[in-house]
From TrEMBL:
Protein name, entry field: DUF6989 domain-containing protein
Coiled-coil stretches noted in the UniProt entry, renumbered to this chain: none
Residue ranges annotated for the DUF6989 domain, each copy included: 93-237
Domain of life: Bacteria
InterPro entries per UniProt: DUF6989
One Pfam family cited in the UniProt record for this chain: DUF6989
Transmembrane segments: 28-48, 54-72, 81-101, 121-142, 149-167, 187-209, 216-237
Keywords: Membrane, Transmembrane, Transmembrane helix
Amino acid sequence: MDGTRGIEPGADLAGAVRQGVSDEAARMRFIVAAMALVAGSNTVGALTHAGPRFALYSTLFTFAVMVGWTAWRRDPVLARWLLLGFVAGWLEIATDAWLVAQTRTLVYPTGEPMVWDSPLYMPFAWTLVLAQLGVVGGWLAQRMSLAKATLACALLGGSMIPLYEHLADHAGYWYYVDTPMVWNAPLYIILSEFLLSLPLVWMHGVALARPWRFSALLGLVAGLWMIPSVMLAWWLVGPCRAGWTFFGCT
């Protein structure tokens, strides 16, 4: 009997495990770098008061970097998240329209390319944010319970995205009025980002268990979930003197 043939299955399994670990490590390094790129470009925009054109170009550049890396690595995990985020990002403009027209708290500059009431770059920006949060949430789910990973991911979303909101005001991308805020981020936006991030860890597991095209359906769910998340958050802490929980405007 050939002894080499007897150990091939185990060797193949060990090699697959090592490859999976290597792929995950490379993906996480890239995601951290991509998050730093987004934070860095927003910081530069805020420091230089760059305006909406810079937001458009920097967002499309980072989007191209993420798509290019995913194609180069043939990364099925990030590919699923980019598809999910892209679908959700285009649905998010309905939420934006509600904020602009109904709450009248969100204001975008005039004279930039728009889709409905949102800047053209907004769906791409949401693609980046959701893909980054989703990959981090999946990484957390492998290291802690589903409940803890879900809470950690939601807390990350509820802090990371409002940071971008704060920087956006200084950069001239958009701003908020007539609503209680922490720095330049409204309380209701902070709460809504926490709420909309809650399903992401669950979605990560579902997406990986199904063909990649199924991620488009999950993106539809994620995009639709944004609307009640924002409405609930607005009802709780959005109005200056009419919310379920009272917070005054300064």
